[in-house]
Amino acid sequence: MKPTKSQLESIVKIAQFKGERANLSGIDLSEINLSEANFYGVDLSKSDLSWVNLSSADLRKADLRKADLTEADLRRANLVEADLSGTRLNGVNLSEAGLNEARLREANLSRANLSSAHFRKADLSGTDLNNSNLTGAYLRRADLRQANLRKADLSETNLSKANLSGADLRWANLSGADLSEANLSGANLTKTNLIGADLSKANLYGAIMPVGWQKVVKQVP
Q1: What are the residues whose beta carbons fall under 8 Å from the beta carbon of 175, sequence distance 6 or more?
Q2: Cβ neighbours for 63, distance < 8 A, ≥ 6 positions apart
Q3: How confident is the model over 27-51, as a mean pLDDT?
Q4: What pLDDT is recorded for position 219?
Q5: Integer Cα distance of 71 and 41 in angstroms
Q6: What pLDDT is recorded for position 221?
Q7: Distance CA 109, CA 87 (A)
Q8: CA distance linking residue 185 with residue 205, whole number of Å
Q9: pLDDT tens-digit profile of 84-108?
């Protein structure tokens, strides 16, 4: 039998009272309603959190490495400084979530809803974001080196000073995006939509750009 939300929160509170990190590593919490739960600093690495409802939950500094969060509901969740390296997040809903300075290195976020989420200074290097919805997201100074952003919707996204070197942006939608001072060296932007994008002071050294891109962008480097 799976633990209830109240049982889990009791474990967390006892650990926090002792000044320890609650250990829920490897546990099966799939399909449980944990909305607004307090999991601050909890170890949930390698846990099964698929289809779980964690909307508005507090997951600051939580360890979610290699956990399974497939199709999970994390709308408006607080994941600031959380570690999601190598985590499965296929189809997850992270709209309006806070992920500033979070670590998502080589995580799988394909088909994820990340609209209006905050990723300031987050590590998304090597992350799979193909077909994801990042409309209106805040990715200033985020690390997206070698990320897979094929067919991702990044319209109206703030990517100023982000590192997108070597990223795959083929068929991505970057219309109206802020790419000022971004590093796009070696990135592949074949057939990328750059209408109205701001590329002022961006580094495009070695980047593969779409045909006629200079005519449609808001600002050129």
Answers
A1: 155, 156, 193, 194, 195, 196, 197
A2: 21, 25, 42, 43, 44, 45, 82, 83
A3: 97
A4: 66
A5: 22
A6: 67
A7: 9
A8: 5
A9: 999 999 999 999 999 999 999 999 9
In the numeric block, which tokens belong to residue 177? 């995006």
| 153: Cα separation from own chain's centroid | 13
d(CA 61, CA 39): 9
d(CA 155, CA 173): 6
* 25 touches 49 (CB < 8 A): no
Which DSSP string do the residues of 7-54 spell out, in sequence order?
Answer: HHHHHHHHHHHTT---B-TT-B-TT-B-TT-B-TT-B-TT-B-TT-B-
pLDDT at 24 over 80: yes
User: Which amino acid is located at 195 in the chain?
Assistant: I
Indicate the residue type of 155. S
Q: Which residues contact 134 (CB under 8 A, 6 or more apart)?
A: 114, 115, 117, 152, 153, 154, 157
pTM: 0.94
Q: What is the pLDDT of residues 172-205, one digit of tens each?
A: 999 999 999 999 999 999 999 999 999 999 999 9
Tell me how far CA of residue 62 lies from CA of 1, 156, 194, in angstroms. Answer: 24, 29, 36
pLDDT of amino acid 215: 81
